[in-house]
Amino acid sequence: MLSFQRLITINKQAETPVYLQIAHALIYHIRMGVLRRGIQLPASRELASLLGVNRNTVVAALDELQAQGWIVMKPRAGVFVADNLPEIKPQALSDNNTRYAAQTSFDLNTARMVPFPYIHKRGTSSYVLDDGLPDVRLAPMDALLREMRRLSNISAFSRHLSRGAAAGVQSLLDALTVYLNDTRGLHISPSQLMITRGAQMGIFLAAQLIIQPGDHVIVGEPGYHAANLTFQQAGGVLHPIPVDDQGLDVDAIEQLCKRIKVRLLYVVPHHHYPTSVMLSPERRMRLLELAAAYKFAVIEDDYDYDYHYLSSPVMPMASLDHSGSVIYIGTLNKTLAPAIRMGFMVAPSNLIDAAAGLRRVIDYQGDALMEGALATLFTDGAVTRHVNKVVRVYQERRDHFCSLLSSLDVSFKIPEGGMAVWTRFNNAPVAEVAAKAAKIGLHMSDGSLFNHNATRLGFASLDFEEQEAAIALLAKALS
Ligand SMILES: Cc1ncc(COP(=O)(O)O)c(C=O)c1O
After folding, report:
1. Ligand 1, residues 200, 205, 419: which to mutate, most atoms within 8 A of Cβ?
2. Does any ligand 1 atom lie closer than 6 A to the CB of residue 199?
3. Best mutation site among 118, 334, 422 for ligand 1, i.e. most ligand atoms within 8 A of its Cβ?
4. Do 236 and 215 meet the contact criterion of CB atoms below 8 Å apart?
5. Does ligand 1 lie within 6 Å of residue 205's CB atom?
6. Distance CA 402, CA 396 (A)
7. How many angstroms does the Cα of residue 267 sit away from the middle of ligand 1?
8. Which residues are CB-neighbours of 144 under 8 A, at least 6 positions away?
9. Could you give the CA distance from residue 296 to residue 263 in angstroms, rounded to a whole number?
10. Counting beta carbons within 10 angstroms of the beta carbon of residue 33, is it exposed (0 to 12), middle (13 to 18) or buried (19 or more)?
11. Is 224 in the pocket of ligand 1 (CB under 6 A)?
């Protein structure tokens, strides 16, 4: 038996008239299915006495409901919820009909705000030349989801569904330690590893724990905007160092170290972002020597280690560092799919402990089920098989893309690794080309992040046909 006193609460002080409050409450419960189609409602006299209001108020509410088509009044039979309810239109979500304030009544701490550019705005474009993202259609989602389901049914795993360690689920820490030691020539133990949401979280945690306001931070020019913003947000003062076809100019770094106390250096030695060049072996060694001599920390971002086409990938600087200078950061978001949000940070244990503590204040822990499933995919070889497969696919895609690109009025070098071609526009401003391209259905970056009349054109996420269609549109935009 439904309790109408409980279903309908009346506030006689409210601005909304009582009869409308009753009508709105009844509509709400009809919509929610509590008052089902066709059921009889109490007569107006009974409802009035149940709600403690005048009978005329209830009559006015029922009239309103009948006018809107929510109920039918049948002579000598009573009041019924209509069998054919008025069409329930989804409410349009718009900023105009919100009652919640659009602006805070208090000031925000602008020093903490980050002007992060929104670069993945695809809009209605049919094709996207992205920043160098993997083809998510190739990601081993079936295996991952199957393993997540299996684990969720295993009682031994169920404790992981409760609160867990901020550094990650132990099975993944163990599996990834073995994998990194095998593939990257590292010699780490699980206590020197932390699972993060991605490379970006590793960069953020490390930056927060190293940089004090005013500290000097070396970055590449051109460089990775998101890392630069992270360092600035932590209070760092950026010192952009030129990047040539052998990577960061190490002589310029040494000169700078002689003048100022450098606290941190950020480097992407495997495939520099955005140009994809490799840091030469000599420069790697010199950088490590400089880090030890001048006692600065190195963040080695190896975000697309897996994708190397020329020969086998080059071992990270972290594999040569025994002095505790290098923090090695990587991600599975490029290996599998960007939305998986899973990465890692290798560092001396004291930094890992501090990073796990810092993580707690923003994100209590990671996704335990996903971490557990990934541990299995590492140990049963599924990740390695996936990487081997997609490296072949992406190499073919790189070659196809570069041959298409060579017919355009642009300059580029075929990258030895990564998922994008650093492309210079010879005779047209890249911003104008991107604007024209957007009008004809192709989204690409307008190069404003780089300031070199150049941009990254991602090839990995498009198959041959898609590449051909995208490059045909780019050719039109250039013409
Ligand atoms: C150079 C570089 N580092 C780090 C990241 C961040 O990776 P994640 O998505 O794992 O946070 C990216 C993303 O594109 C990148 O280009």
Report:
1. 200
2. yes
3. 334
4. yes
5. no
6. 10
7. 13
8. 336, 370, 373, 374, 377
9. 5
10. exposed
11. yes
Which residue has a Cα nearest atom 3 of ligand 1?
A: 303
For residue 219, what are the β-bridge partners?
A: 240
Q: HSE, CB side, 13 Å, CA atoms: give it for residue 283.
A: 19
Separation of 59 CA from ligand 1 center, angstroms?
63
Place 6 in a pLDDT band, splitting at 50, 70 and 90.
confident
294 lines ligand 1 (CB under 6 A): no
Residues whose CB falls within 8 Å of the CB of residue 286, separated by 6 or more in sequence, listed in order: 250, 254
Check pocket membership of 416 for ligand 1, CB cut-off 6 A. Answer: no
Instruction: Write out pLDDT tens, residues 338-384.
Output: 999 999 999 999 999 999 999 999 999 999 999 999 999 999 999 99
pLDDT bin (cut points 50, 70, 90) of residue 41 is very high
Q: Confirm or reject: Cβ of 230 under 6 Å from ligand 1.
A: no
333 lines ligand 1 (CB under 6 A): yes
Q: 90 pLDDT exceeds 70?
A: no
Whose CA is closest to atom 15 on ligand 1? 303
Confidence band, pLDDT 50/70/90 cuts, at residue 125: confident
Those residues whose C-beta lies under 8 Å from the C-beta of residue 308, and which sit 6 or more positions away, are 270, 271, 314, 391, 416, 417
d(CA 197, CA 374): 13
Say if CB 203 and CB 227 are below 8 A apart. Answer: yes
What global pTM score does this model have?
A: 0.82
Ligand 1: residue of 333, 340, 374 to mutate (most ligand atoms within 8 A of CB) is 333
Question: What is the rounded end-to-end Cα distance, in angstroms, of the chain?
Answer: 74
Rg of the chain over all Cα atoms, to the nearest angstrom: 30
Does residue 219 contact residue 228 with C-beta atoms inside 8 Å? yes
Q: Nearest residue CA, atom 7 of ligand 1?
A: 199
Phi, psi for residue 330 in degrees, rounded to 5:
-145, 180
CA dist., res. 238 & res. 254, Å (int): 16
d(CA 299, CA 210): 10
Could you give the CA distance from residue 50 to residue 48 in angstroms, rounded to a whole number? 5
